[in-house]
Recover the amino acids of this structure.
């Protein structure tokens, strides 16, 4: 099948872009290196996406978006894009062992979890260290765990983890929580949660599996050891843009700069969702940007045809 538009990434931005572009009659291919839906697919409950007053499971929302995109004819390929090259009026998208010639591309590659780079984190990953409560929470039934980070992700995932674990110790580097007040309020009457604000995680301890963590009070410099069986880390994200360096304009952190039409510094290449350089990263904003990018890509491709 000949394709006109490639979308790199099948999170909310990429799938929304696919819905709009395929419905407009473009031949669309979506490349996804992991699970369609991105972080949304592994979120337990989403309560701030419009249209679902009782909330919706992340995997269900992701599946609905994927099915809608495929219903309009978008093709989903489970491959990682390794490079993008402009060739005349065409754009060459390369995957492992294959390349595609397109008229336009939408980059919706999203982000990856930021690591702490502390002793024990890499060594014990998958042996008590996790970045996904939905994936690994049930493994810690009746156990004590730590959640690192008191932003929206940390408190949201911590709430899910309390369905299984006996106790959660929240560690936050700042002296205050950055999560929305509605999430903070959930814990006001929760006896199974302890909050250590203005504390830094120094190390994750254990031989074969996580057995404890060492934390430091940033005010007093006092350190203490806390026995836990698992550590869930939510301290921010890094853009998945390594293969785009030198291809499109990136900011100092590696996020893609675009104009108001979602177009990057490379003509015919657009970006949408969490990969963009911006302030707000939410599902609803990603969907809006995906729609905008698809509409602009459609007009660009139609102009090429003329």
């Amino acid at each position: 099948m000949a394709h006109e538009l490639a979308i790199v990434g099948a999170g909310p931005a990429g799938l929304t872009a696919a819905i709009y572009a395929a419905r407009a009659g473009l031949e669309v291919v979506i490349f996804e290196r992991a699970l369609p839906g991105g972080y949304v697919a592994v979120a337990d409950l989403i309560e701030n996406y419009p249209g679902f007053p009782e909330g919706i499971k992340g995997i269900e929302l992701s599946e609905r978006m994927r099915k809608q995109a495929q219903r309009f004819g978008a093709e989903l390929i489970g491959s990682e894009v390794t490079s993008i090259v402009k060739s005349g009026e065409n754009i060459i998208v390369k995957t492992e062992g294959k390349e595609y010639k397109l008229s336009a591309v939408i980059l919706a590659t999203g982000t990856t979890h930021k690591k702490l780079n502390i002793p024990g984190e890499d060594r014990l990953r998958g042996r008590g260290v996790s970045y996904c409560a939905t994936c690994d929470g049930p493994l810690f039934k009746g156990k004590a765990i730590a959640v690192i980070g008191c932003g929206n992700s940390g408190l949201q995932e911590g709430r899910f983890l309390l369905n299984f674990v006996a106790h959660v110790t929240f560690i936050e580097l700042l002296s205050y929580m950055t999560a929305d007040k509605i999430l903070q309020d959930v814990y006001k009457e929760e006896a199974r949660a302890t909050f250590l604000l203005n504390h830094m995680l120094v190390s994750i301890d254990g031989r074969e599996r996580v057995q404890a963590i060492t934390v430091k009070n940033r005010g007093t410099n006092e350190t203490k050891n806390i026995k836990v069986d698992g550590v869930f880390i939510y301290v921010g994200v890094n853009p998945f843009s390594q293969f785009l360096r030198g291809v499109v304009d990136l900011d100092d952190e590696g996020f893609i700069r675009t104009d108001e039409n979602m177009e990057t510094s490379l003509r015919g290449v657009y970006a949408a969702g969490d990969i963009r350089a911006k302030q707000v990263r939410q599902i609803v904003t990603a969907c809006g940007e995906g729609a905008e990018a698809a509409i602009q890509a459609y007009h660009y491709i139609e102009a090429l045809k003329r």
About this structure: The chain is about 25% helix and 30% strand. The radius of gyration is 21 Å. The chain has a mean pLDDT of 95.
